[in-house]
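Sample pair:
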Amino acid sequence: SVLLSRPPILTRDLTPFEKAYFLYQKRLNERLAMPFSRYFYYQKGTPGDVDWKRKIKDRLTPARDIGVYNAYAKEGWNDELVVGAKESEPEEQVEALLRDAEVEVAQGEDGVEVKKEVIAKPMSRVTEADRVGDVRSLDRLLQRTLYLVVRKGDGRWWFPSDGLVGRESLHTAAERVLVQAGGVNMNTWIVGNIPLGHYVRNYSAPAIAKDKSHEIRGEKYFFMKGRIMAGQANLKDNNQGLTDFQWLAKNELENVLLPRDWSAIRNMLAER
């Protein structure tokens, strides 16, 4: 069986304590590190110098993302936030940086009309797939590890898997399983030759093999770690009777796997 995953693309969201701590450090640095004179950056009387003087009146400090705070006034020591303040929120800091980056440009012969240049905003950490709940998309839960699970013909959700053929190795078998189950449009990498773990799943009643030569009393799974680099699963031409697939995080897998299956593999999965 293959634990094929898409690793996190973004760093996780900060906790409230971390947000407050980082803003406190920024304000502390602003108070302790004496900045250069503005004339080090802007020649006196230039448009850049005029724009600087206009903006410094609003934010009171050279730093653009620490809120209205004057590090050199009598109240400069008071650099902590009150409960509920938004200055430590990353979204508020991004908006402050964008507002500060706006440049007013005078147009026309008399320079009366003033227009602000549009600043490109960074992309949201929440994607369209997150908003619509598309569990087939790889562009969701960018802060989490996603695992590929497929639905077998009996309706059971499980990881792509198949029996060994001949004397093939686990590594070779894992590569074959991904092609047979998910198609050739996935660029994947099987990490190493040693499985992450194994799981013995006993049947409630023995099953007869396809060739009727013996009874099958259960299955033993060896889990190989895999990564998807590009592409997407396509079950159109699969030869295992698979009917659907999903990309799910660890906490979501608990809701679709059978309880005994979940109990066996949960410690093999990444927390985020």
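The longest helix spans residues 16-32.
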